[in-house]
Design goal:
Distance between the termini: 48 Å
Strand order of the largest sheet: 1-2-9-4-7
CATH superfamily of the largest domain: Jelly Rolls
Shape: globular
Order of helices and strands: EHEEEEEEEEHHHEHHEEH
Radius of gyration: 19 Å
Strand content: 15-25%
Number of domains: 2
Helix content: 25-40%
Number of strands: 12
Structural class: alpha+beta
Low-confidence stretches: 1-6, 244-250
Length: 250
């Protein structure tokens, strides 16, 4: 199935002032390597709710999320849909050497992608160790996140699941701005209550109830449905069952 895309706005960043540069696949690139990437890249934008890729689609590009958030979903044989991952700014979409998309990729918010034509990107990887090294680091980080998520879904209570998701979003927001996640933190939650329920394996009623409980207990302050203030990140981690480093409380 061919995806529908919009040409990126004129305000699309260049490599020199890109807000995700320090975390993206090009983070270690030298000037000449950036120029080589620039020759094969293009920007595309997607509206919230739009499907970028369907599972099984042929992928003729790989890409980095520049702004916005997307979900990775998989449809089971009985028609149920399970969200299996989130893509935040700087996350990479697609795998060199893999021709088809393994998951549906859906824009949760308006999305801007920095895309690279797949075949030239694979050829450039062979000539540019910095790209391959960074992609390996990102893949290992993704593996760690998947293992952490297995624990969250399998062992944590509903309250801990909600707190953990809030902590994940807070950490990513901080890292994007080169800040340490600590103290008072403010961010916009990219997911609706329905999407949170789907992602966490909870009911919508449970998500709403636990969000209200965290608000009542002073763990979070909600301004509207999406704007979140965390007065103390350490308290949020305690509610998530994590310590300050993101590990389990012993």
């Amino acid at each position: 199935m061919q995806m529908t895309v919009h040409e990126a706005p004129l305000s699309a960043p260049n490599c020199g002032n890109c807000q995700i540069r320090h975390r993206a696949v090009c983070a270690r690139c030298e000037t000449d390597e950036l120029e080589a990437l620039d020759s094969i890249k293009f920007y595309r934008s997607f509206e919230a709710g739009q499907t970028l890729l369907w599972s099984g689609d042929r992928m003729d590009f790989v890409a980095s999320v520049v702004s916005g958030v997307a979900t990775l979903t998989q449809v089971m044989e009985d028609g149920r849909t399970q969200t299996v991952g989130l893509l935040f700014p700087s996350d990479f979409v697609g795998r060199p050497g893999r021709d088809k998309a393994p998951y549906n990729v859906i824009a949760t918010t308006d999305l801007l992608m920095c895309c690279f034509r797949k075949k030239p990107f694979e050829e450039l990887m062979g000539r540019t160790p910095h790209i391959g090294q960074r992609l390996l680091e990102m893949t290992l980080d993704e593996l760690d996140a998947a293992r952490e998520w297995m624990l969250l879904l399998g062992r944590k209570t509903a309250r801990e699941k909600i707190a953990s998701l809030l902590a994940i979003v807070a950490r990513r927001e901080a890292s994007l701005h080169l800040k340490v996640p600590q103290g008072r933190m403010i961010f916009d939650l990219p997911l609706t209550r329905e999407a949170m329920a789907d992602y966490l394996g909870l009911t919508l009623e449970t998500v709403s109830r636990q969000m209200s409980a965290l608000k009542r207990d002073g763990i979070i302050v909600l301004e509207g449905k999406r704007h979140v203030v965390v007065p103390s990140f350490d308290r949020l981690l305690e509610e998530a069952g994590d310590d300050a480093d993101g590990g389990l409380v012993g």
